[in-house]
Amino acid sequence: MKIVSLLPSATEIVCALGLESSLVGVTHECDFPAGVARLPRVTRTLIPHDAASAEIDALVRERLRTEKALYTLDLPTLEALRPDLIVTQALCDVCAVAEAEVTAAACALPGSPSVVNLEPTCLDDVFACLQLVADAADVAGRGREVVAALRARVATVAARASGLRERPTVGVLEWIDPPFSSGHWTPELIALAGGRPLLGDAGTRSRTLAWDDVRAADPEILLVACCGFDVARTRHDLPILARQPGFAALRSVRADRVYVTDGNAYFSRPGPRLVDSLEILAHAIAPDVHPLPAGLPAAERMRVSQTA
Predict the structure, then answer these.
(1) pLDDT per residue of the chain (308 residues) written in tens, 0 to 9
(2) Same domain flag for 99 and 169
(3) Which domain holds residue 91?
(4) Closest by alpha carbon to 15, among 38, 47, 48?
(5) pTM to 2 decimals?
(6) 292 and 203, same structural domain?
(7) Is 127 part of any domain?
(8) How far apart are CA 105 and CA 184, in angstroms?
(9) Whether 192 and 288 share a structural domain
(10) Nearest 5°: CA angle at 200, between 198 and 202?
């Protein structure tokens, strides 16, 4: 079976199922596991690679207003690959190729490949999507094994968190300029890790915040996990955050509990590494209770020097 993935989380799901050798095409954003870098790219983006965060936000809002895509398919490459299965998504209107474009392309391709559309809004949905891909790729048993192992890791974190005497309030920002809450699965991850989620609502889309919303919530722990940005790129925007009125007075800042993590690799991708995200978050919330598993990067404390 030849598989094309049209979003990074789907690529990670396919590889977690042991099907990396069946992947024949991925998106321009797929970067994990490292081996997928050798594969043909079947998507392109209209976002300049050096755009500032505010510019990216403006492009996204314009796309939503005009219904013009920020991402598009490379149809000649897709046709040449002749996939049997295409894995795509209908969850986010701005982070992947439009669903209608994928459907039209699939109908026009030789052999009429199957299309699996993923739309997770919570952790259980992510596990269900993993099984959906496994079923479509004829590795249902492997899917059940992978899901069971991921659920066991989640249960381990939740069991440790249940013994916490104090559950700090936690806010996660998935964008800085302007501030965005983190919805969908992120509030669920916070609760599983032993925190009390603020700023975002479980199972709902992320939303633009006024800075006064962040200041009013005043979480004891603030995690910055910018969608599509790694830690180095996120650091670039930290001065914008630090310049907000009243930033220095936030409880998280005064307690030195503002953290930065790789939103691109973890919190923004609804795939197997959401469980890694949970473990990273749990360690940041209660490091004495939640040891960081080997191989995972700890959330990085935001330093004053980073905002100079």
Answers:
(1) 999 999 999 999 999 999 999 999 999 999 999 999 999 999 887 776 677 888 877 777 776 666 556 778 888 999 999 999 999 876 565 566 666 777 777 777 877 899 999 999 999 999 999 999 999 999 999 999 999 999 999 999 999 999 999 999 999 999 999 999 998 999 999 999 999 999 988 878 888 999 999 999 999 999 999 998 999 999 999 999 999 999 999 999 999 999 999 999 999 999 999 999 999 999 999 999 999 999 999 999 997 554 54
(2) no
(3) 3-119
(4) 38
(5) 0.91
(6) yes
(7) no
(8) 29
(9) yes
(10) 110
